[in-house]
């Protein structure tokens, strides 16, 4: 079988599990003063330093969380509650529910939440942001890359606009981690969310990068762990898994992956009648190719591929089994009829050009695979 | 990367209340679930399989805690569960009626509850009402009833932990639940320490019978991995979420679920409840040996309920003493040097040299609170470990006291 749905569920990396294992079987609370507690604390801080290194951040700017959802909630609510400024929150039209629902919650507290539209490629343009940004905007949150159409945002450019006005800028980098640079200095972000499970850790571990001196009100209160920014006994194994996964990601061949994707996109567009790429043509995630096939039924295409042993998806997890058109494609101007023909292929290092050629051939009208 | 912690403790670990070593059952489940996660051929349909696994874990955990499976909300741990309960109940009750501003709680609550309530007081217009406890740290029911009778309309919630993490004192939760029900006020109980650890002879923990609206439990305190916990939420209770997003967990708690951790947590919970009575008896016996070894020593005072007269009022794995003229930290240090891992109190505040808020709430002076030492036993504790600690304690205590008195003379 050929699994081309890594955006839905990425395999846990064996090296990550091996690194985590001794800490799962270890036993001390890192806040305990005795020697086993101190050992757990050393492992935790080493993982924090390692994560910081991959982000070009300081260890004190790394907060371990239970995952991407918590990181997003903490960033939006934490920054907005700590310094409400003009009670004006800007998010893009393509945010994950963890961001949009957190913003909606701030809306119920009296914040004005405004959505920055995207263009037909799913891009938030600097002009669209500038038109809505106010000197007293509380916070801007724009995701780094989109899971459904693969478009990458110009985070450095958007963050620079915010920096001019001293407006805190958060990015949900959950989908970007693994193939895009997470250098927070180059990106210029105030806060950034990461989830381990998109990088090959088990679920339940994440990171919030929070630039020092960014106003922040903790989301979870208690024993004051992690410098009072996130209470709760630290998940040492999860932190070690996160550090290991970032290390592995830094060694992966992203250029090769992007080249294989290019070949695949060209093959599909050339061979499948009527196929259109969704998202940006070049500024897209390395292992991500998404299409609409106007006139076809997305559902039957997926079933047909599955019969041939190829597993991909419509792209929107929420749309699975529901007839709701994808909110992302709608925001990008696709009609519901066309949006329902969406097919997404997402893949990692282990997928070869031959695999992708086979997938292109398996699409309706794709013709024989070139090597078949 | 730095080296991993040592494997299983060699019998010197007396800090099970901070975290207890992962149990073989938890490891077995992790070994079963985790490799499947790394196999791409098992990834297709993994969402559906993960849901099935979580649902079955939910039922398993619900059975172990006397709850209905729809009442189980999985969280990242006890702290998140407590935050969700206290904030969620407060926001919801306040939204229903602006007059409900008060949070009633005893001063002995865990920091996850206490700091959350204090945050609500500082930022969300809450008012805290402290419920008195007696010298053993048990809630004064008459005082609670008087407060409720006088002003139940202004109460958003009552929160009382099932058992205290420092002294092991067990609260009359069912009676508190009954009182709260009579006045129409929801009760939250932090049962992180009590779950699976109640004394032999006590009825097994039952959320259904507790009268609580919400109840928090944690995985790593019972031998499951860190990073998983649950809040039990009665079906008629609505909570305002702390984590918003995809709407998982009845829309009460969003975020992808740690499937391996959850399965492991539920399996351990089930096993624990099945063996609880026997294990409680074993631990109480060992704890009493330690108690016998120290209680007659000069300057040593047992804190919390006396298990020799009231075994039902104290967790069977807990011994807590204060030593006059000694510093808790020097006791801990000397015990650590001798190979025994103990605590001065809660690990969650360790490293901060201030007297325990639990002991202060029980009426101790700062002076008396200083020499606190907690010994908590668990599933790896053996007769030999206890004998060794019991033999070492008199000398360690004497040494810490003379060091303390020498320091005082200077």
Automatic annotation (TrEMBL), chain A:
Signal peptide range in chain numbering: none
SUPFAM superfamilies: PLP-dependent transferases
Pfam families the record matches: Aminotran_5
Reactions mediated catalytically: (sulfur carrier)-H + L-cysteine = (sulfur carrier)-SH + L-alanine
Keywords, in A-Z order: Iron, Iron-sulfur, Metal-binding, Pyridoxal phosphate, Transferase
InterPro entries: Aminotrans_V_dom, Cysteine_dSase, PyrdxlP-dep_Trfase, PyrdxlP-dep_Trfase_major, PyrdxlP-dep_Trfase_small
Source species, domain of life: Bacteria
Keyword presence, Membrane: no
Cofactor: pyridoxal 5'-phosphate
Family the entry assigns: Belongs to the class-V pyridoxal-phosphate-dependent aminotransferase family. NifS/IscS subfamily.
Protein name listed in UniProt: Cysteine desulfurase
Native source species: Nesterenkonia sandarakina
UniProtKB/TrEMBL annotation, chain B:
Taxonomic superkingdom: Bacteria
Catalysed reactions, as listed in the record: (sulfur carrier)-H + L-cysteine = (sulfur carrier)-SH + L-alanine
MF (Gene Ontology): cysteine desulfurase activity; iron-sulfur cluster binding; metal ion binding
Organism: Nesterenkonia sandarakina
Record's keyword annotation contains Iron-sulfur: yes
Sorted UniProt keywords: Iron, Iron-sulfur, Metal-binding, Pyridoxal phosphate, Transferase
UniProt xrefs under InterPro entries: Aminotrans_V_dom, Cysteine_dSase, PyrdxlP-dep_Trfase, PyrdxlP-dep_Trfase_major, PyrdxlP-dep_Trfase_small
Chain ranges passing through the membrane: none
Protein name according to UniProt: Cysteine desulfurase
Cofactors (names): pyridoxal 5'-phosphate
Coiled coil is among the record's keywords: no
